[in-house]
UniProtKB/TrEMBL annotation, chain A:
Lineage, opening ranks: Eukaryota, Viridiplantae, Streptophyta, Embryophyta, Tracheophyta
UniProt name for this protein: Ubiquinone biosynthesis O-methyltransferase, mitochondrial
Encoding gene, per UniProt annotation: COQ3
GO MF annotation terms: 3-demethylubiquinol 3-O-methyltransferase activity; metal ion binding; polyprenyldihydroxybenzoate methyltransferase activity
Cofactors named for this entry: Mg(2+)
A single GO BP: methylation
Residues that bind Mg(2+): E205, E208, H209
UniProtKB/TrEMBL annotation, chain B:
Cellular-component GO terms for this entry: extrinsic component of mitochondrial inner membrane
Cofactor(s) essential for the protein: FAD
Membrane topology: Peripheral membrane protein
Main location: mitochondrion
Presence of keyword Flavoprotein: yes
Localisation per UniProt entry: Mitochondrion inner membrane
Function: FAD-dependent monooxygenase required for two non-consecutive steps during ubiquinone biosynthesis. Required for the C5-ring hydroxylation during ubiquinone biosynthesis by catalyzing the hydroxylation of 4-hydroxy-3-(all-trans-polyprenyl)benzoic acid to 3,4-dihydroxy-5-(all-trans-polyprenyl)benzoic acid. Also acts downstream of coq4, for the C1-hydroxylation during ubiquinone biosynthesis by catalyzing the hydroxylation of 2-methoxy-6-(all-trans-polyprenyl)phenol to 2-methoxy-6-(all-trans-polyprenyl)benzene-1,4-diol.
UniProt keyword annotation of Transmembrane helix present: no
Biochemical pathway: Cofactor biosynthesis; ubiquinone biosynthesis
The organism of origin for this protein: Carya illinoinensis
Self-association and partners: Component of a multi-subunit COQ enzyme complex.
Protein known as: Ubiquinone biosynthesis monooxygenase COQ6, mitochondrial
Length: 317, 511
């Protein structure tokens, strides 16, 4: 259930070397900094107080009779309902997910370059991910899973919204190359219970929709093999992100349905780095996305003030 | 198509449920769909099953210069060289061609290729074949006017280039690209046939069919473009490229509209011989339109002479001696005097501009070498300008004359086409790099945006030239002469004109 982003003037973003050293801030120091931001907790037992509808998660709600989700998960019920209502339009390049289609090549460029470097794959190959097992958590209609499969990866796409999985399956079956994608209506938590492991775990534009980001990151980490990669993208909790991603994209440009995002659930890059660090993932690289309204194209930049993506590797213990 | 999918969804639910269970079970077992070999095996079976059906990544309709340039460019890039390409052209020369020899009689059809095109040919490895054949680089160009009021000379040194361009026969350009593609192990299939029909979005309606066989075929091919050929074959492709010229069938079948007009003028084109080698490109504006004399190598030159259709008809039919006489008059004293080498009284008007005089400005007016005989047939083409309103939609894209046709005034047509081929192959490579379906419209629109801007600019310049020089009216002639003088003396202006005409793609005047 990825969702989208954007701001129309420009987002930008960053490279970890400018904002913090690649080695990351000392956890304690970072924790102090975070106090000024918001009192989130990475302890699964104490969900953030400002999210009243996040409690019972999916334990006894929506998924029950329709889908296979019966395990606790970090998902928010309302978020699921929201995405189910627009699922059919996933592959309409002019539909509600248009911003995601437009941004897709840019985020894939980041994934291609970081994964090729980390896994020592040939960047000139048309199928550089041959031999890699990748899971796309929150795959939606498969907008990210399909390109990953074309790039040679063995892809599993999971999403908690059953309708998304149906759309993704139908669409992937149109092309023999993408028909190998394994789609499943489940959650990261459940995959962890099944003890699934992947070379790379990718979850784009998802974490801002989950009830407990810290718990979610722990699940992603648990799915990643030692020295494997974890890639996460989301929206910064900055005033600019509020102005562009919510006011701009949802209310003025109508790129996104109103209510797609809640500013208070956004994470700052520092927070994301910290919770990933606690989940044993070391963030190695970060970039922002900048939108150029004249060319109507996205590009990677080192301004992470609105949309950003991070690449981390799991510590070998 | 998405809407159709949505509609079909309900019908498919039962099938999907089964499938999903299957996948989830697999997932639990921890094995499964992660088997690539299985998929290619499956695909092969499907192909065998329907052995009449041929499936490609790209179908290039039109194996002319621009279509072959695209194939060569794709073959030369690491990310695209694995693509499986069909080239559809009824020209039998594509399959079994006869090697060109340097001593072959010259052809009437030539192109003036710009430095940008030359570097494209060098990058794909085709330029070496051109160098083995007849070609002529030129470093100088002289443009003047029959009124005797102005002239200007361009020199490659003005823009720090070695050459202004190179004149090559079209058959040599085409043959060099064919030679080039033969030396690669690029998977290409020539279909000596014509395109009869094209279906871009069939399929989705058959997706819900329950017959297993039908389902297999339609779901694996259904998302592709289907082309039917005049030899009865059907081929499927992720992307159809219309490189089939000004009367593009692909453009028509895809429903792209065009904007354009005909000039009430024709161009007479032929090759002539001199007694000495011509090393300069010449263009003289006559009352009815310009005449250009382009060096081709081996004492040959090519003539592109614009005039009204009636005159063109006469000049095509008149005897050769008369035609040669007319041509020499048109390039020399016919219609009016030579411009004075010194600048007449107008020189003073421009004296304030001389601060930054380019090197060639000090060169005197020259008379082109005499034509001694005709060396090819005379061909007549109507001049027109046509531009497709769109270059791309899902699974289909236009390049070259299929997207834009211009009159031959500046020999730019084919260069624009080569620019299209290069831009499209790069966009395809970028798409492959990030795993995007190469028929995806968002990706193809990127090519369209990039090329439309450049092509429209070039067409506007050429159209403006056409209009400015097709009027024979006293004050306008003087104005034209003034522009010549200005162009000859104002260096930055001239540099911009040349570098735009030679393919540097900057905006003239504003860069």
């Amino acid at each position: 259930m990825a969702s989208k982003l954007l701001n129309y003037c420009h987002l930008q973003a960053l490279c970890s070397r400018h904002v913090f050293s690649p080695r990351l801030p000392h956890p304690t120091r970072a924790a102090l900094t975070l106090l000024h931001f918001r009192p989130f907790s990475d302890a699964p037992s104490s969900p953030p107080p400002e999210k009243p509808h996040s409690y019972n998660n999916t334990r006894n709600d929506i998924g029950m009779e329709k889908g296979p989700i019966q395990t606790p998960s970090s998902l928010k019920e309302l978020e699921l309902v929201k995405f189910a209502s627009i699922a059919e339009t996933w592959w309409d390049p002019e539909g509600p997910f248009k911003p995601l289609h437009v941004m897709n090549p840019t985020r894939l460029a980041f994934i291609r370059s970081t994964l090729c470097r980390h896994f020592r794959k040939d960047p000139n190959s048309s199928r550089p991910f041959e031999g890699l097992k990748i899971v796309d958590v929150g795959c939606g209609g498969g907008i990210l899973s399909e390109p990953l499969a074309r790039m040679g990866a063995a892809v599993m796409g999971v999403d908690a919204v059953e309708k998304n999985i149906k759309i993704a399956r139908l669409h992937a079956d149109l092309d023999p190359v993408t028909s190998t994608i394994e789609y499943c209506c489940t959650t990261a938590e459940r995959l962890v219970e099944e003890e699934r492991k992947f070379d790379a775990v990718i979850s784009l534009e998802v974490i801002e929709h989950v009830a407990d980001p810290a718990e979610f990151c722990k699940s992603l980490a648990a799915l990643t093999i030692p020295d494997g990669a974890t890639v996460i993208s989301t929206i910064n909790r900055s005033m600019r992100a509020y102005a562009t991603a919510i006011i701009g994209a949802e209310y003025i440009l109508h790129w996104l349905p109103k209510g797609t995002h809640q500013w208070s659930s956004f994470l700052t890059p520092e927070e994301l780095v910290l919770i990933l660090e606690r989940a044993n993932i070391t963030v190695k690289e970060m970039a922002g996305f900048v939108y150029n309204p004249f060319t109507r194209r996205w590009s990677l930049s080192d301004d992470i003030s609105v949309n950003f993506i991070s690449f981390g590797t799991k510590k070998v213990q | 198509m998405n809407r159709v999918i949505a509609r079909k969804l309900a019908a498919n639910v039962s099938r999907l449920k089964v499938r999903q269970e299957y996948f989830c079970t697999d997932a639990a077992a921890g094995v499964s769909g992660f088997n690539r070999g299985q998929s290619s095996q499956e695909q092969k079976e499907k192909n065998d099953f329907a052995n009449n059906i041929q499936q490609y990544d790209i179908a290039i309709v039109g194996g002319g210069m621009v279509g072959m340039a695209l194939a060569c460019s794709l073959a030369s890039m690491p990310l695209t060289k694995h693509l499986n390409v069909a080239i559809i052209d009824s020209n039998p020369a594509l399959g079994s061609r006869v090697r060109l020899k340097k001593g072959d009689p010259p052809d009437a059809r030539v192109s003036t290729v710009t430095p940008a095109t030359i570097s494209l040919f060098k990058d794909v490895g085709a330029w070496q074949y051109i160098e083995q054949n007849r070609h002529a680089y030129f470093h100088k160009m002289q443009v003047w006017d029959y009124t005797g009021l102005g002239y200007t000379r361009y020199n490659a040194r003005d823009i720090n280039k070695e050459v202004l361009g190179c004149v090559v026969e079209n058959k040599v350009l085409h043959d060099s690209l064919l030679s080039c593609i033969e030396t690669t192990d690029f998977q290409k299939t020539f279909h000596p046939s014509r395109l009869t029909s094209m279906t871009l979005h069939q399929s989705s309606s058959s997706m819900g069919m329950d017959s297993t066989l039908l389902k297999t075929t339609s779901s694996s091919l259904g998302h592709l473009a289907k082309l039917e050929l005049s030899d009865g074959k059907s081929i499927f492709a992720k992307l159809v490229v219309g490189a089939d010229g000004g009367k593009s069938r692909v453009r028509e079948l895809a429903g792209f509209k065009t904007t354009g007009w005909n000039y009430s003028q024709n161009a007479v084109i032929c090759t002539v011989e001199h007694s000495v080698e011509n090393r300069c490109a010449w263009q003289r504006f006559l009352p009815a339109g310009p005449i250009a004399l382009l060096p081709m190598g081996n004492n040959f030159s090519n003539i592109v002479w614009t005039m009204n259709p009636k005159e063109a008809g006469n000049r095509k039919l008149m005897n050769e001696d008369d035609f040669v006489k007319d041509t020499n008059a048109a390039l020399d004293y016919g219609y009016g005097p030579h411009p004075k080498s010194s600048l007449l009284e107008m020189g003073d008007m421009f004296s304030w501009l001389r601060g930054d005089v380019t090197l060639s400005a000090t060169e005197g007016f020259e008379v082109p070498p005499k034509v001694v005989k005709l060396a090819s047939e005379r061909m007549v083409f109507p001049l027109s300008l046509k531009h497709a309103n769109d270059y791309a939609s899902k699974r289909v894209v236009l390049i070259g004359d299929a997207a834009h046709t211009v009159h031959p005034l500046a020999g730019q047509g084919v260069n624009m086409g080569f620019g299209d081929a290069l831009a499209l192959s790069r966009v395809i490579a970028e798409g492959i790099a990030v795993g995007i379906d190469i028929g995806e419209v968002t990706m193809l629109k990127k090519y369209e945006e990039e090329r439309k801007r450049t092509n429209i600019m070039m067409m506007a310049i050429l159209d403006g030239f056409q209009k400015a020089y097709s009027v024979d009216f006293g004050p306008l002639n003087i104005l034209r002469a003034a522009v010549f003088h200005g162009a000859n003396y104002i260096s930055p202006l001239k540099r911009n004109i040349i570098s735009y005409a030679s393919g540097d793609q900057r905006l003239p005047l504003f860069s």
